[in-house]
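For reproducibility, we list the full input for the nicotinamide-adenine-dinucleotide complex.
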Amino acid sequence: MAEFLITDESLTSVEGKVVIVTGGSSGIGLSTVQLLLSLGASVVGADLHEPLEGAVSSARFTFNQADVSKWQDLVGLFKKAIQLHGRVDHVLSNAGVGPRTNYINGIELDENGDPKEPTSLVPDVNLKGAINTATLAIHYIRKNPSGGSIVVTSSATGLHRFRGVDYTVSKHGTIGLIRGLHTALAAQDIPVRINGLVPHWTASGIVQEELFKELGIYTQPASAVARAAVKLFADESRRGQLIHVDHGVYKEVDETLLQVYETFQHEESTGGDEGIALLAARLNWFTDAK
Ligand SMILES: NC(=O)c1ccc[n+]([C@@H]2O[C@H](COP(=O)([O-])OP(=O)(O)OC[C@H]3O[C@@H](n4cnc5c(N)ncnc54)[C@H](O)[C@@H]3O)[C@@H](O)[C@H]2O)c1
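The corresponding predicted structure, in tokenized form, follows.
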């Protein structure tokens, strides 16, 4: 698994770029906003609430209130960025909430004594929000002659077993989003790169450092993850990658994982994506919207 360092020089190409960051008022998102601004990018931060006073002070920053689970809020966010800057170069889809749904013992009953549907807040924000943010990002970024990129904050939880089921589902889902869009964008030669972050425990609003310290769990600073987000924007060679960040150590994991998966396939098997490419050509799938 390839461990790599992130030098300051390798981040400088974001100067002058226009970047949208969702969940940009706290934790990993806020730290990414601060790093981007320090490197000379213009940033539109989207969140339910503004950053705390004094956390961001730059004329190149605009706050746009948006709930990423609402399509119209996301449309308003992208339109605001276009109105302000004329284009969008990069998007960090990062807004997220922690686990909260108990699918095993938490079922509530309605007035008739029937089981009530559990809340879908976590998949609505963490997964539907990411899908819709990426969809709008592709719509706008592909208009740029030189394209741009999307980074999705997934989680190490998207790669392993984890008992916060709603969160695990949503983060596995975002890895599917990255893998699927990477493959489909490349197949259609659309100049939009997509990559993901799969951070381990990181001090933030969701993961409160003091509590985790009491439990003996190390939390890395959000700034360590922010560097990986900006690296993925800045480095045009990175495509379809998942960057694991733990104790501030950076490793690309997906190329290794996918190589392991290939060893499970029969030697004469037609690859899954190769198969769907043949079907798509025969049945005229994935053509442009009318
Ligand atoms: N902290 C960790 O250990 C860790 C590890 C892996 C992945 N992540 C992911 O990192 C991302 C950022 O989280 P964080 O840890 O920095 O926590 P955080 O709470 O500090 O930041 C999350 C931000 O998202 C915003 N948000 C929540 N719901 C929203 C909505 N519907 N619309 C718009 N904004 C909304 C919150 O207001 C908050 O500002 C999340 O996707 C989280 O799942 C965190």
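The beta strands are 2-4, 18-22, 42-47, 61-65, 90-93, 148-153, 192-199, 242-246, 249-252. Residues 2-283 form a domain with the Rossmann fold fold (CATH 3.40.50.720). Both points were considered when choosing residues for closer inspection.
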